[in-house]
Structures are given as C-alpha cells and as structure tokens.
Amino acid sequence: MVDSNQGVGSIWNKGNWHWEDRNYTEFAKEYLTKQFATITETTEDAIISIYEVKTLNGSASVTIRKQKQIFNYEFDCELYFKANHLTDDRTDLMGLMKVHEFNQEDDEVNIEITCEKPGDWADRVRKVLRSKFPEKILKEA
C-alpha cells in the first residue's frame, strides 16, 4: 500500500526526492466554482445559498519534495448569494460576498458582504453569512 502523502513525481524524478511543482490552478478553479455554488445554510426563517461565483482569482499547485506532497493554494473570490425568507416572499434578498485571500494555512476567512437593500432582514442575513459561511468555504477549499 502506498502512503497517501507520498508524492508521485515525473519520470525523471523516479525516487520522488527532487523538488517538483505542478500547476493545478485551472483544476482548482473549476472544482471550487462547482463546490461554492452548492453552499447553503438553512435557519429557522431563511434559506441562504450561493448561486454564482462571480470571480475566482489565485493559484493552486502540488509540490513534491523528499517523497512528500505539499498542497498549496491561495485564492480570493466574489460570490453572489440569495436569501429566501421562508414565510414572507417580499423579503427575499440578494447580494455579493467578497472572500479575501484564503489558503491552506488559514483557519479564518475575511469576508465583505454587500446586500441589495438595507434593513433588519439584511442584517440578520449578514450575521448568518459571517458566522456560518467562512467555515463552509474553508471546508470546500
């Protein structure tokens, strides 16, 4: 059985001992775009979900050195969200969530939230986004 952390290098790097870096940016962008679009949180009065990834900028790579794989990524993104009130259709809300510089070493995510309309409902949605969505974003990354 092969250790899952053991790197698998190129033909020229048979012993997987030498430094080798592979770009996985396009794969990571495609994967994160799909995963982020599935993030949803249900509260007692709302369903809040990401419905579109507006931008996703950054890079991802896998480095092999001394038979070990090291995953590296750093991204920032803009995500469109919607909040559907479960009892009042008139209070549905949409907005933009900017996620700043998340990477493999972070356990916190810095987000900036803009809602299309102000009010108590928007404040409650922001509170849920700030408390629940950073963890969900890191889980998917």
Supply database-style keywords.
6 strands, alpha+beta, 6-stranded antiparallel sheet, 23% helix, disordered N terminus, 141 residues, Bactericidal permeability-increasing protein, domain 1
Describe this structure in words.
The protein is built from two helices and six strands, in the order βαβββββα. It is of the alpha+beta class and 141 residues long. The chain has one domain: Activator of Hsp90 ATPase Aha1, N-terminal domain (Bactericidal permeability-increasing protein, domain 1, Super Roll). Strands 1, 2, 3, 4, 5 and 6 form a six-stranded antiparallel beta sheet that branches. β5 and β6 form a beta hairpin. The radius of gyration is 19 Å and the shape is elongated. The N terminus is likely disordered.
The name of the CATH superfamily reads Activator of Hsp90 ATPase Aha1, N-terminal domain
The biggest sheet, with number of strands, parallel, antiparallel or mixed sense and barrel status, is: 6 strands, antiparallel
Helical stretch count? 2
Q: List the helices and strands in order.
A: EHEEEEEH
Kindly state the percentage of residues in helix.
10-25%
Beta-strand segment tally: 6
**Distance between the ends:** 27 Å
Question: How much β-strand is present in the residues?
Answer: 35-45%
- Model regions low in confidence, pLDDT < 50 over at least 5 residues: 1-7
Residue-averaged pLDDT = 84
The appropriate CATH architecture is: Super Roll
User: Gyration radius, to the nearest Å?
Assistant: 19 Å
